[in-house]
Design brief:
Elements lengths: L5 H13 L2 E6 L2 H4 L12 H4 L2 H4 L2 H6 L1 H16 L5 H12 L2 E6 L5 H5 L4 E3 L2 E8 L5 E3 L18 E5 L8 H13 L2 E5 L11 H7 L3 E5 L12 E3 L3 H9 L8 H5 L12 H15 L5 H6 L2 H25 L1
Parallel strand pairs: 1-2, 1-7, 2-3, 7-8, 8-9
Antiparallel strand pairs: 4-5, 4-6
Helix pairs in contact: 1-11, 7-11, 9-10, 13-15
The structure holds adenosine-5-diphosphoribose (APR).
The site of adenosine-5-diphosphoribose (APR) has 25 residues, from α2 and α11.
C-alpha cells in the first residue's frame, strides 16, 4: 500500500471531478505494474545498459545491429505486457472529460491497447520502423524482428521509430502537448522521474500558467516540490481510486444482491478484453506466466466466471444449510 494520505487522495479526487479539462503526462512508471521495466529505478534499464551505446543516433551509426538487438529485447518484453488498472483508469477518465489530452513518454503502446484516444506520443513508438533514407515508416508488431538490422523496400537501413537522446521531438506533437498543458485546468503527472527534457519542462509550464499539478509516483521526484498534491504509491493502485473507476472489474455486489451475474455469452468482446487485462494484471506474479500467456482472453474470463459462479453457489448452499 503506498504511503499517501487518504485526505490527499480525496482532495485530488475532488479537484479532478470538478475539472472540465485535464492533461496527463505519463512515464515508464505507469507500465511498471504491467511488467515493462522503467529506465532509472533500481532495476531500471539504464542501470544495466549504457544509453550512449544503445539510444543515440551515434550509437546506431556505430553499430546498428547492437541497437536492434536491444530493441528486439525490449519488443519481446513489451509484447508480453498488458495494460494495467492504471492505464484503464485513464481510459475511463477520458470518457468523462470534455477536454482530455494524454501525453506519454512511453513507446510501449499500452495506452492505445487500453483504449486511450487523444494520445500524444512524445518519444515515438517501439512498433514503428522507419527508413533512414526515404523516411518511409511502417508498423511491425512481431515481438522480435527476424532480420536485424531490418531494411526498407528502398534498400536502405531502417531504424526504430523512437526518439533518441540528442534528437528533437516531433514538432507537431510537442506543440500540441504544450498547448494542452497551458489550457488544461489540471496536469496529472504519473510515473516519470521528471529529469528528461523537454517532457519534464511541461510540469513547470503548467505551474507558470496557474494550473493544478497532481503527481503519482512511489518516489519523490523534482516534480514533487512543484506539485499541489503528490500521491506516493503505485499508479495501478492509486489511479482507479483517484478516478473512481471500477468499470473493468465484474460487479461482485450484483451476485451478492441476488442479481444474476452475466454469463460468458452475455459479455461483449470489448468487455472480455478489459476484464482479461484486469485479470492478467491481478494474476501477475501469482499465476504461472507461461500458463497465463497461453490462455486466450476468452478462456481466462470463462474460467474466472466459472470460479465465481461456483463460489456464489457454494455460498448460497452454505446459506441454505444454516
Ligand atoms: N507507479 C507509478 N510510478 C512508478 C511505478 C509505479 N508502479 N514504479 C516506478 N515508478 C516511477 C519511479 O519512481 C520513477 O520516478 O516511475 C519513474 C520512472 O522513471 P524513469 O525510469 O526515469 O522513466 P521516465 O521518466 O519515463 O524516463 C523518461 O527517459 O530513458 C528515456 O526515452 C526514455 O521516455 C524515457 C525518458
Amino acid at each position: 500500500m503506498g504511503s499517501y494520505m487518504n485526505e490527499d487522495l480525496e482532495r485530488a479526487r475532488s479537484w479532478l471531478q470538478a475539472a472540465g479539462s485535464v492533461a496527463v503526462l505519463t512515464g515508464a512508471g505507469i507500465s511498471a505494474e504491467s511488467g515493462v521495466p522503467t529506465f532509472r529505478d533500481a532495476d531500471g534499464l539504464w542501470r544495466s545498459f549504457r544509453f550512449e551505446e544503445l539510444a543515440t543516433p551515434e550509437a546506431f551509426e556505430r553499430d546498428p545491429k547492437l541497437v536492434w538487438e536491444w530493441y528486439n529485447f525490449r519488443r519481446e518484453r513489451i509484447a508480453k505486457a498488458q495494460p494495467n488498472p492504471g492505464h484503464m483508469a485513464l481510459v475511463e477518465l477520458e470518457t468523462r472529460k470534455s477536454e482530455f489530452t494524454l501525453i506519454t513518454q512511453n513507446v510501449d503502446g499500452l495506452h492505445e491497447l487500453a483504449g486511450s484516444k487523444n494520445l500524444l506520443k512524445l518519444h515515438g513508438d517501439i512498433w514503428l520502423v522507419r527508413c533512414t533514407k526515404c523516411g518511409a515508416g511502417w508498423i511491425d508488431r512481431r515481438p522480435s524482428l527476424p532480420e536485424i538490422p531490418p531494411h526498407c523496400l528502398c534498400g536502405a537501413l531502417a531504424r526504430p521509430g523512437v526518439v533518441w537522446f540528442g534528437e528533437p521531438l516531433p514538432k507537431r506533437v510537442i506543440d500540441e502537448a504544450t498547448r494542452a498543458v497551458k489550457s488544461s485546468e489540471i496536469l496529472l503527472v504519473i510515473g516519470t522521474s521528471a529529469v528528461v527534457y523537454p517532457a519534464a519542462g511541461l510540469i513547470p509550464l503548467a505551474k507558470a500558467h496557474g494550473r493544478t499539478v497532481i503527481e503519482i509516483n512511489p518516489d519523490e521526484t523534482p516534480c514533487s516540490d512543484m506539485a499541489d498534491c503528490s500521491l506516493h504509491g503505485p499508479a495501478g493502485e492509486i489511479l482507479p481510486r483517484l478516478v473512481g473507476s471500477d468499470s473493468h472489474r465484474p460487479k461482485e455486489s450484483d451476485a451478492r444482491s441476488g442479481a444474476r451475474m452475466k454469463t460468458f455469452a452475455e459479455i461483449s468482446a470489448p468487455e472480455i478484453k478489459t476484464m482479461a487485462a484486469w485479470l492478467r494484471s491481478k494474476l501477475q506474479g501469482r499465476a504461472n506466466p507461461l500458463v497465463l500467456s497461453r490462455l486466450s482472453d476468452e478462456e481466462l474470463v470463462r474460467r474466472y466466471l466459472r470460479g465465481k459462479e461456483e463460489g456464489i453457489n457454494h455460498g448460497r448452499r452454505k446459506e441454505e444449510e444454516r
